Automatic annotation (TrEMBL):
Protein name: BPTI/Kunitz inhibitor domain-containing protein
One GO CC term, this protein: extracellular space
Pfam families registered for this protein in UniProt: Kunitz_BPTI
Signal sequence extent: 1-25
C-alpha cells in the first residue's frame, strides 16, 4: 500500500474514532461490549478498548470500519476516558483502600498485625516499602545465627502505596542488637517469590532473585502482572535481596 493510501486510511480512522466520542456519553462508552478485532475492512490500526470485566485497556487491531465508540488511539486516551469506570470498579486487597487522588490502592497500617522475631533476638524493626497489590503487611523473615532457624514476623508499620506501574522498592531496616547477640540478615518475602514473566507479550530485561542459588538472575518480563520479585537492574535486585542473605552458610 502506497504512502498516500496509508495517510488517507489514517485520516479516515481519526474521524471514525473521534465522531462517536462527541455523540456518546463518556460513562456509556466504557460500558460498551468489547468487540473482536474488526475484520470487515483491511486496514491495520493498532487501537485500545476498555474491558469492563478486567477494568483494563486492551490492545486490538481496528480494520477501519464498523465497531463502536469503545475504541481509542492510545492506551493513555483509553485510561483517561474510562478513569471513572476504573475507579468505581476497582477492587483493592482486604488490607487496603482505594485512593481516588492517586488512583491506587493504599495500605491500611492499622490492619497490619504486630509480631516480633524470637524473644532472644530482641530487635526493633521499622520498614518503609512500596509494594504491589496484595503486598500490604508483607511478611519478612528473620533468623539468628545461634538458632539456625527461620522465624516469621510482620512489619509493624506500613507506609506503602500500591502504584499502578512498578515502582522501585527500597526496604530500610533499623535493627538493634541485644548485648553481644548477633542478628544477621533479613530476607524480604518478595525475594522468595518465583520468577513471573507475566501475561503480556512485551520483552523487558528484568532481574529476579533466585532463592535456591542466592543469585539475581536475568529474565524477560512481559510488561504486566507478575509479582514483586522483579527488578529493573541487577544492582537493585542485589541491594534488596542478595545483601540480606547470610553468605557464610
Amino acid at each position: 500500500m502506497v504512502a498516500g493510501n496509508l495517510f488517507e486510511f489514517a485520516a479516515i480512522s481519526a474521524i471514525l474514532i473521534a465522531l462517536p466520542l462527541a455523540t456518546t456519553a463518556v460513562n456509556e462508552i466504557c460500558r460498551l461490549p468489547v468487540p473482536n478485532d474488526y475484520i470487515e475492512c483491511n486496514a491495520y490500526f493498532p487501537s485500545y478498548r476498555f474491558n469492563a470485566s478486567s477494568k483494563q485497556c486492551d490492545r486490538f487491531v481496528y480494520g477501519g470500519c464498523g465497531g463502536n465508540a469503545n475504541r481509542f488511539r492510545t492506551k493513555g486516551e483509553c485510561e483517561r476516558t474510562c478513569a471513572e469506570a476504573r475507579r468505581l470498579n476497582s477492587v483493592c486487597p482486604a488490607d487496603s483502600t482505594w485512593n481516588a487522588q492517586t488512583e491506587s490502592c493504599v495500605c491500611s497500617p492499622e490492619l497490619c498485625p504486630k509480631e516480633s522475631c524470637a524473644p532472644d533476638e530482641n530487635m526493633e524493626v521499622g520498614v518503609e516499602a512500596t509494594g504491589w497489590p496484595g503486598d500490604c503487611c508483607a511478611r519478612y523473615i528473620c533468623r539468628s545465627k545461634s538458632a539456625k532457624k527461620y522465624n516469621p514476623y510482620w512489619k509493624d508499620t506500613v507506609a506503602a502505596i500500591l502504584k499502578k506501574s512498578r515502582a522501585t522498592r527500597k526496604n530500610q531496616f533499623d535493627v538493634e542488637e541485644a548485648g553481644a547477640h548477633q542478628v544477621d540478615r533479613f530476607l524480604p518475602e518478595i525475594c522468595l517469590l518465583p520468577q513471573a514473566p507475566g501475561l503480556c507479550k512485551a520483552a523487558f530485561r528484568r532481574y529476579y532473585f533466585d532463592a535456591s542459588s542466592q543469585q539475581c538472575v536475568l529474565f524477560t518480563y512481559g510488561g504486566c502482572m507478575g509479582n514483586g520479585n522483579n527488578f529493573q537492574t541487577k544492582e537493585e535486585c542485589e541491594q534488596t535481596c542478595a545483601q540480606n542473605t547470610d553468605s557464610s552458610e
